[in-house]
Amino acid sequence: MLVLGVDPGSQVTGYGLVEKRERDNDLTCIHYGQISPPRDMPFYKRIHYIFQGITDIMSRYEPQEMAIEDLFYSKNIQSSLKLGHARGAVLIASVQCGVRIFEYTPLEIKKSVAGYGRASKEQVRSMIRMILKLKDTPNLDASDALAAAICHHNWSRFKSL
User: Can you give the pTM of this predicted structure?
Assistant: First the structure.
């Protein structure tokens, strides 16, 4: 099964595609990257840029499911609102493409890959490199997205029992 993990953000949205093979339960990274709208672009156009980018990725790779980080609450209301808009663009793209959506808290994602819910972004990235046997180092947004995809693969294994 191919899962698209997404780490939404209004400035940078990370994504990663992780496939699990049925025969050996091995996880393989298919592709990862980031969607970065130009900073001088008006906010509403950045949101559309993110929507279009996720739609293009889903059309190209045809994932069966998407794992996305659930909203977390921060002290900066402005940042939370902008993050919510970016997240909404990703959710709508998923619905439009017919991809099932699964949401996980940052704590669940970190615990799933690093064994500790308060792991740093760098610790998560290090574990992602080991789990997926990556030769290169993804940026932090892409590694968070890959972590969401791995988290979903781990949780879906337990849901099927």
Answer: 0.94
